[in-house]
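Supplementary Methods, section 5.1.

A reviewer requested that the exact input to the structure prediction be made available. We therefore reproduce it here, unchanged from the version used in the analyses.
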Amino acid sequence: MFEADEHQRLVQETARRYAQDALAQVAAQLDREGRFPAEQLRELAELGMMGVNIPEEYGGAQAGAVAYALAMMEIAQGCASTAVTMAVTNMVGETIVKFGTPEQRRRYVPELTSGRFAAGSFGLSEPSGGSDAAALRTSARRDGSGWVLNGEKQWITSGDRAGVIIVWARTQPGSGSHGISAFLVEGGQKGLHLGKREDKMGLRASSTVSLAFEELRLRADQLLGEEGHGFAIAMAALDGGRVGIASQAVGIGTAALRASVKYAKERRAFGHPIGDFQAIRFMLADCDTQLEAARLLALHAAGLKERGRPFSREGSMAKLFATETANRVCDVAVQVHGGYGYIDEFPVERHYRDVRASTLYEGTSEVQRVVISRDLLKDR
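The structure derived from this sequence is encoded token-by-token as follows.
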């Protein structure tokens, strides 16, 4: 049984109030218009939500990984698209804090936590592949004291809005994962070209674009971490990111379940609220049970991260179970609503579309099973 401490409850309650009072009121409109939630993200920054687990000296709330997971669950109930941008921006900020130089931290992280940068972006996936990150083709060659970047990235959340983008590139040809480095590309740099905004099934208020780099010149101080150590940085960032996406999925599933409970109490058939019928009651009971299990997995992984313990396996377990559970819950929610679940008059239609991507980004469900089974079968 998990019980939040006072500080974690404060963060959670702050996120809950904002999600219910502000985000939930505009989520449907943002979705219909495909409008980036710039105003809402600035307000989240003012509440400390763009740096929940980032030290105070860089403008963060320094509330810890568990508080971040709790906040993400609440924000995702209000608007999943806004939660995605919040998740990636937090991940970018945490990665720069962990691997960046003091100057890089001072230069970029306060811009993210304050909302002066609309977002941060994570540039790993490419048109030729996402799960096989070690096979990336984007390259960076030395040029004097700096670097020249060339290549393409695909499926980049907030890539057209980001003030800073962590971009992974091959700096040692033919060296596999050992020849990859990470760079901090600034939004608007010469040589950075934005592709079209993808017309997605869900998360329509979250901007997703491709990026192209054409002879983009990077200063020496834009290298993040050591040359050739970029793959390890990416894997570490994704471990934490998976806890965030698991929490987001729990939030979306919870919103769908709550909408279904409300509908089951109000909708009548054969002279009774449909919630009186065992078929509906058991569907809701299963959803509630599975979501609670997903919530505890996510919080367990977050707790390990907060204590500085290894959590790669637990993060993958949380993401795998939470995202697949949330997909099932949203499917049930549409079924409970009947025909009304298939139109945008009710929010479960949006939740159903939004949650679908959760088993795809930041590592597919299949990749999570690879991570889990690899750890399970290794020599101990």
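DSSP finds ten helices and ten strands in the chain. These observations are discussed further in the main text.
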